Amino acid sequence: MTTDSPHVDQQIPAAPAQVDVAISVRGLRKTYGAHVAVASLDLDIVRGEIFALLGPNGAGKTTTVEILEGYRRRDAGEVNVLGVDPAKADARWKSRIGIVLQSKGGDSELTVAETVRVQAAYFADPRPVEEVIGLVGLTDKLKARASSLSGGQQRRLDVALGIVGRPRLLFLDEPTTGFDPEARRQFWELIRQLRELGTTMLLTTHYLDEAEALADRVGVIAAGTLVEVGIPAELGGRHLAPARVHWVEDGQRREQTTATPTAVVHALSQRLGGEIPELAVQRPSLEDIYLQMIGQPA
Amino acid sequence: MSAMTPGAVTAKTDARPELPPAGQVYVARSRVEILEFFRQKEALVFTLIFPSLLLLIFGAVLNFELAPGLTFVQYFMAGMVASGVLASGFQNLAITIAIERSEGRLKRLSGTPMPKSAYFVGKIVQVIVVGVATIALLFVVGVAVYGVDLPSTAAKWATLVWVTLLGLAACSLLGIAFSSAIKNGKSAPAIVTPIALVLQFTSGVFFVFTDLPEWMQNFAAIFPLKWLTQGMRAAFLPDSFAAQEAAGSFELGRVALVLGAWTFVGMVLCVLVFRWRDRADG
Asked: Whole-model pTM?
């Protein structure tokens, strides 16, 4: 399995109309009493892409995803997941999706292999159990009780359960919450491998770096509405936003906002005779854009 | 090459998936239910071993003669077998299902293509295995330590079998239904165990039923354990003892009727109140 194959998010078109749609949502609405969890949400996810739903806690991410998974009923709107309305979905439809829920699965006394094997029994054409366990990197834990695994290992087991049925569509709800940085990197590699196997993925996260590292497209959800959808590099017009050039001149910090930072730096270099003290050129980070979108001061 | 999105690849392999035969899933679920039970120390101790432990202790303390040639241990044996049925069905399922629901394990199962029936088949198989193991252990301890007589005729064995099976059915269904009343899985043992204890004290398990005050007898007669215990006495005590029962007989017809009615009630309650998700989860 090659994990470091060239994979360039930015080359995938934002909305390729000719490709099959895995998920299509129009005017989705869900309220809990007086609280509007999802106001009016439209969303299209193309087959084969990794789509990250990004948003603060309570923005409506999990509600939206659980409606798509068939767990929750909606109050209004049209939802189509793999050609079926999840509210009317049957076992046949469930055999085509994989779900990795936000909560962990409890302390089972089954071993890793037993846990995956019983899950495989629910599907007509499952992946071989050892293969799946290898894919999530738990081969050396094959005979370990699920309850003895670390948090990161349990999450990997959750993913193994999600993919053993060869899902066409995989839901991952905040899969790396509570991971240390190294475990998160390993998990990202796993997700990239799954993409190469052709799995469509809808990922929710509140980690911006995760969305940027994995997603073909990112949707930002705030207060129950999708406020923007785009490829990570262009989210919120980030690539078009003016750059800020910082430097030090005559002992003073200077800053210039410009659409042409190269020209500014070139001019500075000539004026200051080569090296520019403490030069920095900044574009708005995904985090800057994101905080702006969800209405918080950067 | 730009048109070769991953989507174009998966679209071609989108053959209609079929589901596995239900029998295969039933076997897989039954297997893990049995494995999980026997690997949980708490379950092993409190469900499987506890009735035998009580038999050991109470047998040593209350070793008096109930009638000429009939020890209280023989009477207590019937009560402990009935308690074992209650523990395997009601306590076991009410507690473990409440925990599974709280931990989100039921929610996960309901998101898979597993037929819903397979979950219940697995639990039923587990309850039968656990119930039979609990009773077998009681037999070993009772016979080896106290020389308890096992049922003496084929008819009494038949009584033991049908009372056990009907009792397991009623207790299991009530346990499944009762699990929905428990909000937090962690508190399940603290809620379920006292219920079982009260029933045991009032149903003629620890004391001779006819020695209990009448109001207590009437209270116990509402619930299955009293009838389960009475049915077990028909299997373990000599027919001559029937005259000392409250009704002057073991009332096997009524035992079947009440346990059957509770089985029906349990089934209806399961359909009405069983949920795959925790209440806190919306």
From this structure: 0.84
